[in-house]
Each structure stands twice: as C-alpha cells, then as structure tokens.
Amino acid sequence: MSHVSLFKRSPWILHYDGSSCNGCDIEVLACLTPLYDVERLGVVNTGNPKHADILLVTGSVNERNIEIIQNLHRQMPDPKVVVAVGACACSGGIFARAYNIQGGIDHVIPVDVYVPGCAARPESIIDGVVQGIAALELKHKRSA
Amino acid sequence: MDRKAFLGRVGEYQKDGWRLAIINATSILPTEAMEHGAFDVSWSFAKDGAFEHLREQILPGEEVPSISGLFGAAFLYENEMRELFGVNVTGIALDLKGQLYKTATIVPFAPSAIRARLEAMGKKA
Amino acid sequence: MKRTVVPMGPQHPVLPEPIVLDLVLEDEKVVDAIPTIGYIHRGLEMMVERVEFTEFGYVVERICGICSFMHGMGYAVAMEKIMAVEVPERASWLRLIWAEMSRIHSHLLWLGLGADAFGFENLFMHCWRTREEVLDIFEKTTGGRIIFSVNRIGGVRRDISDSELVAIVEKLQQLGAGFAETARIFETDPSIRHRLGGVGILTREDAHAVDAVGPMARASGIPLDTRLTGTYLYDHLDFEPVLETAGDCLARVVVRVREISQSIDLIRQAVQRMPKGEGAPIETKVRGLPTGETFERLEQPRGEVIYYIKANGTKYLERFRARTPTFANIPAMIKLVKGCDLADVPNIIMTIDPCISCTER
Fold it and tell me: What count of CB pairs under 8 Å joins A to C?
C-alpha cells in the first residue's frame, strides 16, 4: 500500500523543553495560537510520543534530561524527525559553557532541522517544521 | 557559629512576623589563613519595607542548623545550599538527600571547585 | 490504607516545563508530594566566572524568557547601586513602562495556559491573541518580541518618542476594553467557578507560614508587593495592590485578571507623570570596575525576585544569585497539593504560575 502524502497535510508534533529559558517554548506555543495558527496547516501538538511524527526540542541537554529525551525519541514511531529550536537546542547557545550543560540536542539524538534564534521567532519555527515535513516525506520514501 | 544564639535570633524574627526572603551562600576562595576556603552564608528576612540579614562565616564541614522548623520555606534553600555549595546543613524538615538538582559537576560552588575552574581558565584564584 | 506513588512529570500535558512531583496517594487523595527539579538547571550563576560584568546582563535576561525584561532591569539596577551610577530619570520611567507591559504579557500568557489546564481551549486562544498585541508594542519599541536586551548598566538603549508613548497608552486601553469580556468570563463563568472555586485553599496564615510571594500571597489577603516599598518610581504613582481573600485557585486567577487592568493604568499614569522631552539623556556612561555587594528586590509578574551581587573590583563578579518568585512559591505549592484530589493537582500547580527555568536557573 502506498503512503504518498501521508504526512504532508498533518504532521503531529511532540514538544519537549530541554533546559530552555522559556523564550523558545512560549514562541512554540505562540505558533499554535490565533496569530500564527499552525493548526491551519494540519499541525497538531500532542503530549503522547507514540502519536508524534516530529519531535520539537527547545533548550540544551543537561545531565538530568538526557534519558528523558532519549526515551521520548525512542517511543516515537518511525519515520520520525527531530527539529532543534533555538540557539540552545542547536549548540548550547549562551549557556554552552555552564557546568550543567552538555551541548546541543545532537549530543543525544540525531537532529534533522536546526532553527536558529534567541529566542527563535514563530516564523522561523514554522519554517523549521515545514522543512521537517519535507525530511519526513524523504525518510518515508527511503524506507518504503 | 554559635548555634544557640543563631537559632534564638531566627526565632525572634519568626515570632515578630517576619518572612524568610532568601538564604544565600557565597564561597570564599582558599587563602593561606583558610586552607579550604569558607562560606559566607546570609539569612534574609523581610517585613513590610524592611529587609534584614543574619550573616555567618561557615567553614567546610561545619554544622549549620536548619531553620526549616521555624520557616517552612527554608527547606528548599537549605537543600540547594548543601547540594551546590556543600554547606553541611543538618536537620532539614524535607531532606531531599542530594536529589534536588543532580548536577553533572558534584558540588559546583565548593571553594575548591571554583578555584580549579579559575585555574583551568588561567585566571589567578 | 495502601499507598501508591504516582510520579507526575517531567513531560506532562499540562506542564509547559519539566518538574517532577512524586505524589503519594491514598485512594484518590494526595497525602504527600516530593518535588524533584533540575531538569532545566543550567548553572548560570557560575557563568560570572567567564562572562564580564558588562555582558553578564545578557545571561541574566535568559534566566527566563517570560520575565526576561525584568531580570535584565534588576541586574542593571543592582549594578548601578554598586557602582553608584545616577540613572537619567527618563530611563527609569521607560523601564517602569516596559516592566508593566511585561506583567501584562506574562499574566495573559499565564491566564491562557491556566485556561487550557482547566479545559477552556477557547479562552487560551483569546488570551494569547490579546497578548500578541503587547508583543507588537515590544517589537516596535525594542526590536524583540521576547528578549530585548534593552537594559544596560546606566540606563536603557532605546528611547520611545512622546507621541509613540501616547499611542501605546491608547493601544493598551483598547486592549483592556477588548479584554473586559474575557475577564468577565474568568470571573463569573459557572464552570470555571465550579472547577476552581474552593479548590486549593491557601489561608492567610498558611501563606505567611510558607513565605508565599506575589499573586499567590495577594490572593490570600496579604498585601505583599515590592512595588509598595516605593522604589522604581512607583511612589510617584497611585498604586494599591490587588487583593483577594478566598485564597483558592479562583482567587489567584482573579488577582491576575485585575492586575492586567492595573498595569495598563500604571502605564497611563507613568506616561502622564514622566517629564516630556524625547532627546533627553537615557543613559549614563559607566566607567571603572565594580566593588561591593548589594541585595536588590523587585516585583515580577510572579512575585518578588531577589538578586544578590558581590563584586570584587575585577571585570568578573564574585557572586550572582537570583531568588526567583517561583522558588519562593514551591513550598506553598507542596502545601496545597497535600490533601487535595489527584484530579485537582494540575490546576493547583498551574495557579502558582510556575516558572521552572527561573527556579532552577
């Protein structure tokens, strides 16, 4: 059975806050609310990793959340895409050299899309998600 | 520190209706006189516009009595002070046993840890 | 009775940020709650060792992306005290205006999240739509939506023209008028009253005993507000803290709803009282290195924040410490959760307006 365009119209997103300052988190939430409204593109925010296609992570990796991020990522069905939102998720950002920070999300799980910014703007987060959808389609084709 | 006098003064703040605003520790780096450094610990109380502090110099390992019996919010500050600084606070009402932060660096603000970091950066401690 | 431990978090649908509460249950009643934090602990207080004091403000602003402006302002004011810098009056007024706008945006944000937690997605959307208008003003006046870096030791980086200030007041008053209907729903809707009324009651005595701050204390009838101490030009304005006495979840919602109109009014007063004259200095040049220490307190949307700074005459501070309002309110949260029904836990946690990244730094 062909699954062409399975994701194109409705990718579901799981958001996890690594050790973000909240700046990127509230911008991710702002994407869901009326001004930006990503739901019009079929994007739904879910709290359940088993329902999610895209893992959106804000903030960097620290000692305590490594396992949580790995667990969430492992539970998501294949194919899956990881979008790192904001400077901290990309590289550790301004906190890169603080004692409890290990680095960007790619320290722990493979990242497909990097969204820059401190805090990342809603426009760039939406753009990141759209690029994530393309990556998802590509992965799906390869596995088919 | 004089444990009894200290608890007596904290008790007076509590009786007079003050509120615990913050407990703060600052590490004092090792010197020739103090081989292992020390901690400058302050307990701050607020009431209306007033803001007062009790301050003690504490040596590493020296026992500091918890004030969580008098001020309910103290347990969080005290657990934090023990985990991040290594100040030996005893008798905390809700003892989280080192599980509050679980940092990658053990006791990141201990005077010796700060000195080691500064030396690694090539700064004089 | 048999006890069950239910771990809540770190990833949970109602929690915007990770925190863990081990809830000890007897049937549906919570008998104990043990907090574990550290999921967002970065260790930023230690960064004073690496970042010069002139640039440390950028780190302080990133303690939290919601109260970012007020963190930056607190740091700047504390450093100005240590370095005995006289700040131009216009800069202080501009800071007050941005600070009150931060309160409006933060309360709208929280009311939305709170509404989502008690099952009103529609209200969530309305609050956040309204909030975008405040962010537009921020973007127009500072260039940023969330993090502005507009504070600097000695003043502010940007001026707002007199005509622009008048336009901002007008815009905020329109926002307030538009928000009135949403506010009425929060205060009177029967299902909201049913869901929040009488739930999670913090009595005045308990609020004092656990050292609660901010709207948490004010909803329990304690007139605790750092703005009352008269610093930051608040003594030039008519200001009475918003008080409620019920101490339940509903009272905490109502306090924040009313503080939105209060902040709009404070900005109106500020624009009226501040001396006219764009082009007046907004920054004092700061020279030399800081020596000394200070405690600095100010009222953030979530309550009183305290900074402690110690400088030793070098480019690097010796100690920076922030005690944020959520840190002070966690004991109150634990107190409230004990004895409540499991199903009420999310609402109780939400109504303290937790900001975990502030708490853990």
Answer: 116
- Which residue among A62, A99, A102 sits closest to B108, beta carbon to beta carbon? A99
Shortest Cα–Cα distance, B121 to chain A (Å):
12
In this structure, whether the domain defined by C3-360 belongs to CATH 1.10.645.10 is answered with yes
- Largest Cα–Cα separation, chain A: 50
Residues of B within 8 A of A63 (CB-CB) are 102-104
Q: A22 vs C44: CB contact, 8 Å cut-off?
A: no
- Tell which of A19, A95, A99, A102 to mutate to test the B interface (max B CBs under 10 Å): A99
CA C314 from centre of chain: 32
Q: What DSSP assignment string belongs to C210-271?
A: TT--THHHHTTT----GGGG-TTTGGGS-------SS-SHHHHHHHHHHHHHHHHHHHHHHH
Quote the CA–CA distance of B57 and B78 in Å, as a whole number: 16
A12-143 domain in CATH 3.40.50.12280? yes
Residues 156-185 of C with CB under 8 A from A: none
* Integer angstrom CA distances of residue A54 from A127, A133, C2: 13, 8, 40
Mean pLDDT of C9-24: 75
Q: What is the pLDDT of residue A6?
A: 53
Residues in chain C: 361
Residue A78 has pLDDT above 80, yes or no: yes
Between A73-77, A106-110, B116-120, the lowest mean confidence (pLDDT) is in B116-120
Q: State whether residue A143 sits within 8 Å of chain B by CB.
A: no
- Minimum-distance CB partner of B49 among C45, C229, C328: C229
B97 at C interface, C-beta within 8 A: no
Domains of chain B: 3-120 (3.30.460.80)
CA distance A31 to chain C (A): 10
Q: What is the ipTM of this complex?
A: 0.86
The CA–CA distances, whole Å, from C337 to C193, C222, C325 equal: 19, 21, 18
Alpha helices by DSSP H, listed for chain C, are: 56-61, 68-82, 89-117, 121-142, 162-188, 190-196, 204-209, 215-218, 249-273, 325-337, 345-351, 356-360
> Which sequence spans correspond to the domains of chain A?
12-143
With 0-12 CB in 10 A as exposed, 13-18 as middle and 19+ as buried, what is A60? Answer: buried
